[in-house]
């Protein structure tokens, strides 16, 4: 389904960008950047956010330290490493 008529982005394009991103994509602006375009009219932003939330699953509401999408190192754990997972960069 086409979500953004201005840039001809489909829901599959958005889900793929979320899955391929090294960082947890949380905003429509990040999706546009990953897909090499920018917002035009902005009507799709709310739908894109909904698709991002669905793609991230339970982590969409809040990622905290230790979440596989979080790239932060715990303040008290110097040996902690950023989360590693097999996702390509945008």
**Per DSSP, what share of the residues sits in E-state strands of 2 or more residues?**
5-15%
Q: Give the termini separation.
A: 21 Å
**Total number of beta strands:** 2
Largest sheet descriptor: 2 strands, antiparallel
Please tell me what the overall shape is: globular
| CATH-derived architecture of one domain | Orthogonal Bundle
**Fraction of residues in helix:** 25-40%
Backbone CA Rg: 14 Å
Please state the average pLDDT score.
Answer: 75
SSE series: EEHHH
Report the top-level CATH class of one domain: Mainly Alpha
Question: In CATH terms, what is the fold-level topology of one domain?
Answer: Arc Repressor Mutant, subunit A
Secondary structure class reads mainly alpha
Unreliable stretches (pLDDT < 50, length at least 5) are 70-89
Query: What is the tally of helical segments?
Result: 3
Strand order of the largest sheet: 1-2
Pfam families: Fer2_BFD (PF04324)
GO molecular function, one term: metal ion binding
Protein name: Bacterioferritin-associated ferredoxin
Family: Belongs to the Bfd family.
Descriptive notes:
The chain is mainly alpha-helical. Helix content is 32%, strand content 6%. It has a two-stranded antiparallel sheet with strand order 1-2. It is globular. Residues 70-89 have low confidence and may be disordered. GO terms for molecular function: 2 iron, 2 sulfur cluster binding; metal ion binding. Residues 2-54 form the BFD-like [2Fe-2S]-binding domain. This is Bacterioferritin-associated ferredoxin. Keywords: 2Fe-2S, Electron transport, Iron, Iron-sulfur, Metal-binding, Transport.
């Amino acid at each position: 389904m086409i979500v953004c008529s201005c840039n001809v982005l489909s829901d599959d394009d958005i889900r793929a960008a979320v899955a391929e991103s090294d960082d947890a994509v949380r905003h429509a602006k990040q999706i546009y950047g990953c897909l090499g375009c920018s917002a035009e009219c902005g009507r799709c932003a709310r739908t894109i956010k909904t698709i991002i939330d669905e793609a991230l699953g339970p982590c969409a509401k809040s990622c905290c330290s230790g979440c596989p999408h979080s790239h932060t190192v715990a303040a008290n754990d110097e040996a902690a490493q950023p989360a590693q997972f097999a996702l390509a960069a945008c």
